[in-house]
Design goal:
The structure is a single chain. By secondary structure, the chain is mostly helical. It contains 8 helices and no strands. The protein has one domain.
């Protein structure tokens, strides 16, 4: 029972079983979840719970990837997409902090005037995270090759999220300088 539940979490309730690009699909679903939270006005009220939830997911995932690795064919199987959910969440939360008051306005119900900013920034966060997660520049590639356990599976996506967040900040700064 616990193994079945654990496998459901690690595969993001079956998204990991999609034949083509399950990691990209998991990142996209993550963006949609955060989009809904912001657009319904629930993001700020659930913010502390989101952080606690993500910490729980990180710890849970590291433990259960190791515990359930025998149920998958490889050490870092493509079916495990909880790492994409976690990494994409980091980039989105970073974008929220960088966005500041824009997201406070966006999270108020009925704020239609600037909602396109949310879509553009989520799209940028999505694209940047996927680029770094797929290309795996140094040291992500080393983590991916050398650390073959639950920590390694999660850590390469965390570092990809950090790279994506830094790139996001640079792009946003350049855009703001042009405005």
């Amino acid at each position: 029972m616990i193994d079945k539940f654990g496998k459901s979490i690690l595969t993001l309730f079956g998204i990991g079983y999609f034949k083509y690009a399950p990691g990209t699909l998991a990142s996209l679903v993550t963006c949609l979840i955060f989009y809904i939270l912001v657009r319904t006005g629930n993001f700020l009220s659930f913010y502390n719970y989101i952080i606690i939830f993500l910490i729980f997911i990180l710890i849970y995932s590291i433990i259960f990837i190791d515990k359930l690795s025998y149920k998958f064919k490889k050490k870092d199987p493509s079916e495990i997409v909880i790492d994409e959910f976690f990494g994409q969440s980091i980039v989105i939360l970073f974008a929220f902090f960088l966005g500041g008051n824009v997201y406070i306005i966006l999270s108020l119900p009925g704020s239609f005037l600037i909602h396109y900013i949310l879509e553009l920034e989520l799209l940028l966060a999505f694209i940047l995270f996927r680029i770094f997660d797929i290309l795996k520049p140094f040291p992500i590639n080393m983590i991916d090759k050398k650390i073959k356990n639950g920590l390694g599976v999660m850590l390469d996506d965390i570092v990809a999220a950090i790279y994506a967040s830094i790139t996001y900040a640079v792009i946003k700064k350049v855009i703001l300088l042009w405005l």
